[in-house]
Amino acid sequence: QVQLVESGGGLVETDGSLRLSCAASGRTLSTLHMGWFRQAPGKEREFVSAIRPSGGTTAYADSVKGRFTISRDNAKNTAYLQMNNLQPEDTAVYYCAARHWSLPWTSYALQQGYSYWGQGTQVTVSS
After folding, report:
1. Is residue 126 a contact partner of residue 18, using CB atoms and an 8 Å limit?
2. First and final C-alpha spacing in the chain
3. Distance separating alpha carbons of residues 96 and 34, to the nearest angstrom
4. pLDDT 10s per residue in the chain (127 long)?
5. Pairing relation of β-strands 58-60 and 46-51?
6. b/e code 63-95 from CB counts within 10 Å (16+ = b)
7. Nearest 5 degrees, angle CA 63-CA 42-CA 110?
């Protein structure tokens, strides 16, 4: 079993930056794909970014490409999401999630493939 805890959310002005962290316990992250998802008020939860266990391959939603960077430190059992140039439309609850390495990489955006989820952290971008 894996427990995921997000941190680093908060209130930021437009064009500001935040760095989210996702700390894992109960199992090493080195065998898990990691993903970040977000849910804005009144909207469905959507894919943001994903990273392979080795960290060598990443993926991003078009809406965040060039502004967000996903990374991981397997030695610290932690994944990160660096968010730059934040816009009001980035306001949402951000969730980290983990899935087994054996799942096809190409399905990284599918929520049903992720077995473990954090409780979420609120990111609010003021205009």
Report:
1. no
2. 40
3. 7
4. 899 999 999 999 999 999 999 999 988 888 999 999 999 999 999 999 999 998 889 999 999 999 999 999 999 999 999 999 999 999 999 999 999 988 899 999 999 999 999 999 999 999 8
5. antiparallel
6. ebeeebbbebebeebbbbbebeebeeebbbbbb
7. 50
